[in-house]
Design goal:
By secondary structure, this protein is an alpha/beta fold. The protein has four domains: about 200 residues, Alpha-lytic protease prodomain-like; about 80 residues, Alpha-Beta Plaits; about 80 residues, Cation efflux protein, cytoplasmic domain (Alpha-Beta Plaits, 2-Layer Sandwich), CATH 3.30.70; about 80 residues, Alpha-Beta Plaits. The protein is built from twelve helices and ten strands. Strands 7-8-9-10 form a four-stranded mixed sheet, with helices on one face. Strands 1-2-3 form a three-stranded mixed sheet.
C-alpha cells in the first residue's frame, strides 16, 4: 500500500471513531453542537473513503485510455468532498436557527463527560490535521490537502462546540446552537475555497507560478532558442508542459534534439516531476525571409526588379514591405494587378508571413551612351590617372569614359594586391571615388571595379 493510501486509511479510521463518539455523547447530552459535529464527521468518513479510493486511482500509471495518467481523480474526489461539506453545513445551520428561534427543543445537558468527549475529539482533530497536512506537502496530493483543510475546519468546529457547551453550562441556553451555527459557517467557507481550487485544476486553468518558473528556466538556461509557445496544466501536484521552440534552420537534427533535451531538463529542474513535451521548429531568419520573398516576387511575369525588402514583426504578426519596379508604360490599373499577384505569390510561398505591402516604382529605361571625344575628357583623364597612381602606386588596369543624358560616367578598373582583404580593397576604391568627385565635379558617376 502506498504512503498516500496509508494516510487516507488512517483518516477513515479516525473519522469512523469520531462519528461514534460524537453521536453517542451528543444524543446523551442533547447537544446540537455535538450531534452536528457527528454529522460533520459522517461527511468526513465519506470524504476520507473518497480520498482513500481516489489516491489509489491517482497513482496508477498512464494507460492507452488515460495517456496523461489518473491524477485528476484526486481533484474529482476533493470536489465531491466540497459538495458534501456544503450539504452538511446547510443542515447544521437550519437546525441551529430552529433552536435559536425557539421552534426546537434545546434541553442541552452539558455534563462533564460531554466536555471530556469534546476535548478528546480536539486532540484527535489536531493529530489527523497535522498528519494529513504533512503528507499533502510531501506527496503534493490535492486529495490529502483537502483532507487536511477539512480536519482543520473540524478542529475549529470542535473548539466552538466546547465553548458553546461551557456557555450553556454557565446558563446561556443558546450557546450550543450558536456554536453549531459557527461550525456551519466555517465549513461553508472551507468548502468554497476547496471547490474553487479543484475546479481550476479540472478546467486546466494555467498554474501561473509554475508557468513563470518554466518560462524563466527556458530563457535563462537554454540560450540560442526562441520560445514560441508554452502551455501548462496540472493534476495531482504534477505539471504538464507543452513547449514549442525555434532553432536555427541550419541546425542538424542532432542539434535540434539536443536543444529539446536542454529545454526539458531546464523545466524539470524548475518543476521537479513535471511531464515536458518539446516540439522543435526551424527559426526562419530575417535574411531567409527576404530572399524567399524576393524569389517569389521575381517569378511573377512583368516584374523586373525588387529592392528594399524589409521584414517587420508587429504584435505577433510578420509583415513584408518591398519596392517593386515595373515598366513605366503600364497603366496604374495594370501595375496594381501585378502588385496584387506579387503579394499573393509571397504569401503562398511564405505561410509564416501575414501581410505584404508593395511600393510601385517605374522601371528606369536603358539610357543612351556614347564615347566622348578625347579632347572632351582630356582634363578628367589626367586627374583620374593622377589620383589612382597616388592612391595605389600604379596606373589603372582600364579607364573608360561614357557620355550619357545624365552626364559623364567613369568606368575604372583597379589592379590590387591579391592578398589584400576585401574591406581594404573597398576602402581604396571609395577613397579614389571621393577624390575624383571632389576634383572633377562635372563627372556624374564613377564606377570602380577592383580585381587582383
Amino acid at each position: 500500500m502506498s504512503p498516500q493510501r496509508r494516510t487516507a486509511l488512517l483518516s477513515v479510521a479516525a473519522a469512523a471513531a469520531l462519528v461514534a463518539l460524537k453521536l453517542a455523547v451528543g444524543l446523551a447530552s442533547h447537544s446540537l453542537g455535538l450531534i452536528s459535529e457527528a454529522v460533520h464527521s459522517g461527511t468526513d468518513l465519506v470524504a476520507a473513503l473518497l480520498t482513500f479510493f481516489a489516491v489509489g486511482v491517482a497513482v496508477r500509471p498512464a494507460d492507452p485510455g488515460h495517456l496523461y495518467g489518473h491524477g485528476k481523480a484526486e481533484h474529482l474526489a476533493a470536489l465531491a468532498e466540497g459538495a458534501i461539506l456544503v450539504g452538511a453545513s446547510v443542515l447544521i445551520a437550519w437546525r441551529a436557527l430552529t433552536r435559536i428561534s425557539g421552534s426546537g427543543n434545546a434541553h442541552v445537558n452539558p455534563a462533564w463527560y460531554a466536555l471530556a468527549a469534546v476535548v478528546a475529539v480536539i486532540a484527535i482533530d489536531v493529530s489527523r490535521a497535522v498528519v494529513s497536512a504533512r503528507a499533502a506537502r510531501r506527496f503534493s496530493s490535492a486529495a490529502l490537502q483537502s483532507n487536511a483543510l477539512h480536519f482543520a475546519s473540524d478542529l475549529a468546529g470542535s473548539v466552538a462546540v466546547l465553548v458553546g457547551l461551557l456557555v450553556a453550562r454557565a446558563g446561556y441556553r443558546d450557546g450550543d446552537s450558536v456554536a453549531a451555527l459557527f461550525v456551519a459557517a466555517l465549513v461553508v467557507v472551507a468548502a468554497a475555497r476547496l471547490m474553487r481550487r479543484n475546479i481550476d485544476v479540472l478546467m486546466d486553468r494555467v498554474p501561473i507560478d509554475a508557468y513563470e518558473a518554466a518560462r524563466r528556466a527556458i530563457a535563462l538556461e537554454v540560450p540560442g532558442v526562441s520560445l514560441r509557445r508554452l502551455r501548462m496544466r496540472q493534476a495531482a501536484g504534477r505539471h504538464f508542459a507543452d513547449v514549442v521552440i525555434g532553432v536555427s534552420s541550419g541546425a542538424a537534427v542532432a542539434q535540434g534534439h539536443a536543444a529539446a533535451d536542454a529545454v526539458e531538463d531546464a523545466v524539470q529542474r524548475a518543476l521537479p516531476e513535471s511531464d515536458v513535451v518539446v516540439h522543435v521548429e526551424p527559426e526562419v531568419r530575417e535574411t531567409e525571409l527576404r530572399e524567399r520573398a524576393q524569389e517569389a516576387a521575381l517569378r511573377v511575369p512583368r516584374v523586373r526588379e525588387i529592392h528594399n525588402v524589409s521584414v517587420l514583426g508587429t504584435d505577433g504578426r510578420t509583415e513584408i514591405t518591398l519596392h517593386l519596379k515595373l515598366p513605366g508604360s503600364l497603366s496604374l490599373d495594370e501595375a496594381h494587378a501585378v502588385a496584387s499577384e506579387v503579394e499573393e505569390a509571397i504569401v503562398d510561398a511564405l505561410p509564416e508571413v501575414d501581410t505584404v505591402q508593395t511600393h510601385l516604382e517605374p522601371l528606369t529605361e536603358a539610357a543612351e551612351a556614347r564615347s566622348p571625344r578625347a579632347a572632351e575628357v582630356a582634363g578628367g583623364e589626367r586627374a583620374v590617372l593622377r589620383v589612382v597612381e597616388e592612391e595605389t602606386g600604379a596606373p589603372p588596369r582600364e579607364l573608360r569614359f561614357l557620355e550619357t543624358d545624365e552626364g559623364l560616367i567613369v568606368l575604372l578598373t583597379l589592379a590590387l594586391d591579391p592578398g589584400k582583404q576585401l574591406s581594404e580593397a573597398h576602402a581604396t576604391a571609395s577613397a579614389i571615388e571621393e577624390r575624383i568627385r571632389s576634383e572633377r565635379p562635372e563627372i556624374a558617376e564613377i564606377i570602380v571595379h577592383t580585381e587582383p
